[in-house]
Amino acid sequence: MIDETVFIAEGARVVGEVSIAEYSSVWFNAVVRGDRSKILIGRYSNVQDCCVIHSPREFPVRIGDFCTIGHGSKVHGAEVGGNSLIGMGAILMNGANVGEKCVVAASSVVTESIRIPNGSLVSGSPAKVVRRLSEKEIESIKQNALEYKDLASMQKAGGD
After folding, report:
1. Is 78 exposed, middle or buried (0-12, 13-18, 19+ CB in 10 A)?
2. What is the pLDDT of residues 39-55, one digit of tens each?
3. Taking the mean position of all CA atoms in its chain, how far away is CA 54?
4. Could you tell me the CATH superfamily of domain 7-156?
5. Segment holding 19, helix H or strand E
6. Is omega for the bond preceding 126 within 30 degrees of 0, making it cis?
7. Could you give the count of Cα atoms lying within 13 Å of 137 in the half-sphere of its Cβ?
8. Are strands 68-69 and 46-47 parallel, antiparallel or unpaired?
């Protein structure tokens, strides 16, 4: 089910067994493909331009509330805990589990079945924990998600 408050941009594709909760958004040319198993996207989350989210049979996708999936990222059969940010161009592989309040740095690769602890900044290929996030950094993740909620509301209203 896709909530009526969700913004899906022109050119974005959402297919299959996909649930998107309140005030979330899927931006231009993103693909959310739940044709093999479920994809659940929480409240106030945003899937930015040119992302691909796909769920193979064995690995449903779950993205928590207040998450940002950065431009050009790929989430393939992975889970992302609430209030987390996946940097631009990052890749999450089958069975990867990013905890709550995490940042995956741009272009990082979270390999199969890796578990990222809550509150971590990870970077690299393969991604490794760099350090714990500060409370200020964690709050900025939520603020970013709320800014995208506002941008999506403007787009739904016909604004540029």
Report:
1. buried
2. 999 999 999 999 999 99
3. 12
4. Hexapeptide repeat proteins (2.160.10.10)
5. strand 13-20
6. yes
7. 14
8. parallel
pTM of the model: 0.95
Encoded amino acid at 30, one letter: A
Return the H-helix or E-strand segment holding 149.
Answer: helix 135-156
Alpha carbon 16 to chain centroid distance?
Answer: 18
CB 44 within 8 A of CB 27: no
Q: Which residues contact 91 (CB under 8 A, 6 or more apart)?
A: 73, 74, 76, 108, 109, 110
- For residue 30, the Cα-to-chain-centroid distance in whole angstroms is 11
Could you tell me if 80 and 64 are in contact, meaning their C-beta atoms sit under 8 angstroms apart?
A: yes
How many CB atoms neighbour CB 49 within 10 A? 16
Tokens describing residue 26: 């899927």
Looking up tokens 């899927």 gives 26
User: Where along the chain do its domains lie?
Assistant: 7-156
For 50-92, how does the pLDDT look when each residue is reduced to its tens digit (9 = 90+)? 999 999 999 999 999 999 999 999 999 999 999 999 999 999 9
